[in-house]
Amino acid sequence: MATRVAVLASGTGSNFVALVEAQRAGRMDPAQIVVMVCNRPGAAVIERARGLGVEALVLPDEDYDSREAFEAELIEALRDRGVDMIVLAGFMRILSPKFLEAFPRIINVHPALLPAFPGKDGIGDALAYGVHVTGVTVHYVDAGIDTGPIIMQEAVEITPGEIRETLAPRIHAVEHRLLPRAVQLEAGGRLRVKGRRVVLFDPEETL
Known about the structure:
Layout: E1 3-9, H1 14-24, E2 31-38, H2 44-51, E3 56-58, H3 67-80, E4 85-88, H4 97-102, E5 106-110, H5 122-129, E6 133-140, E7 150-157, H6 164-187, E8 191-194, E9 197-200
Parallel strand pairs: 1-2, 1-4, 2-3, 4-5
Antiparallel strand pairs: 5-6, 6-7, 8-9
């Protein structure tokens, strides 16, 4: 039985495209993307979703007086579509505890090695700090900012003289590999959270 996935995005949609391509290549079974939700009407991800034949639901920030009003409509829309799981792919809103209660299976991808450099500019913050290694983290979403249990991480070396224009594509390439795999594992019931640690679960061990 397929796990019905909603992808929430606010920007160009490169991670969204990577997820759709992985699904169509059979690398994300049993996950099935049923809708892409965007809060920014001019974002490139909207047309990319439509071009790929995925429903693009646009809920503009400016149409809502509060986070509560926005999330109430979002929750209703996701429930109407039978969504089981949510993936954040560059979604530039913080979700409330009420939303997390309604949809506890939420995964996010972040362009840094958490807990280092959380927030909206992980790439820029890593460069500004002068670290020699950064990377990508896929994690569960909790009520904090990039503080949920970590599912996967991969390091990316920062070369001498590195700038955002050279580092960002290398970071994104790792994101495009890790995120679909994490979605597949979660959709297939292969992940377990034990305290702060996420472990890989083998269903055959229970047979």
